[in-house]
Amino acid sequence: MSLLGNILWILFGGILIFFEYLITGILLCFTIIGIPFGVQAIKLAVLALMPFGREIVSRPVTSGFLSTVFNIIWIVIGGILICLTHLLLAVLLAITIIGIPFAKQHAKLATLALAPFGKEIR
Predict the structure, then answer these.
(1) 92-111: per-residue pLDDT in tens?
(2) Which of 42, 52, 61, 120 places its Cα 20 to 30 Å from the Cα of 10?
(3) How far apart are CA 75 and CA 104, in angstroms?
(4) Residue 84: CB partners within 8 Å, gap ≥ 6?
C-alpha cells in the first residue's frame, strides 16, 4: 500500500515539494552558517518524495540546547511558512475522500517542517 501511495503522491505534486526542499537545501549549503539548515531541508526533501511508510521519531537523548536554538532560528526564517503551506494543502486535500491519505502525509510533513532539529525519520 505504501508503494502505491508514494507513486500517487509523486504524480499528484510530491515531486514539486521534493524539488522545492532540495533546491532550498542546496542553496542553504552554499554558506557555512546555512549548512545545518540545508542538511535539514535535504532530509525534508527525501521525506517529501516518499512519505508513505515512514514515521518521525523524536531523539530526546541527542537533542539539546543547540537543537532548540536551531529550531527557533528555523521557525523565524521560514519554518512557519512551510508548516502553514503543508497545513493548507492538508485541509484542501481532506475535503475529498481520496485526498485524506495525502492530507495525513501533509500533516506529518507540517510537524517536521515546523521543528526539524532533534527529529529522526524512520
Answers:
(1) 999 998 999 999 999 999 99
(2) 120
(3) 22
(4) none
| Single-letter code of the amino acid located at 116 | P
Neighbour count for residue 60 (Cβ, 10 Å): 9
CA distance 40 to 35: 9
In this structure, which amino acid lies at residue 86?
H
- Beta-carbon contacts of residue 78 (< 8 Å; ≥ 6 apart): none
> What sections of the chain are H helices per DSSP?
2-9, 15-28, 35-49, 65-74, 80-94, 100-114
Instruction: Please name which of 88, 82, 120 lies closest in space to residue 102, comparing C-alpha atoms.
Output: 88
- Looking from the CA of 54 toward its CB, the CA atoms found within 13 Å total 22
